[in-house]
Amino acid sequence: QVQLVESGGGLVQPGGSLRLSCATSGIIFILNAMDWYRQAPGKQRELVATISIGGSTNYADSVKGRFTISRDNAKNTVYLQMNSLKPEDTAVYYCKPTRYQYWGQGTQVTVSS
After folding, report:
1. Among 12, 33, 52, 66, who pairs with 98 as Cys (CB 3.0-4.6 Å)?
2. CA 43 centroid distance within chain
């Protein structure tokens, strides 16, 4: 059974930082590229960042230079470091293996003063 458990969200002021974590089980983590997605109210879910098996990364233009995706294969966990947060980053953030349609419950990020 695949489980994806996102955590680390919360309320932060504009310009602040958060670090999201996604603990995985039920997949062979080291053999899977991983994605972070987000979904804002009334909007479609969008791909934010991807990290390959070898550690290569890609980002949406809207977060490039502010967000960093990383992985810890020993802990079967993928992270999203988010800096210089903006109100438009407010969304529920989800992680998933790139090639599978498994989703966790997500973690809410709210950027507001």
Report:
1. 33
2. 17
**Is residue 97 classed as helix, strand or coil in its secondary structure?**
strand
DSSP code for 43? S
Residues 45 and 84: their CA atoms lie apart, in Å, by: 21
Answer yes or no: are the C-beta atoms of 112 and 64 closer than 8 Å.
Answer: no
pLDDT at 67: 98
Structure tokens at 26: 């039920």
Q: What is the mean pLDDT of residues 26-52?
A: 96
Residues 6+ apart with CB under 8 A from 92: 9, 38, 39, 106, 107, 108, 109
Band (6; pLDDT cuts 50, 70, 90): very high
CB 70 within 8 A of CB 79: yes
Q: Output the pLDDT for position 89.
A: 98
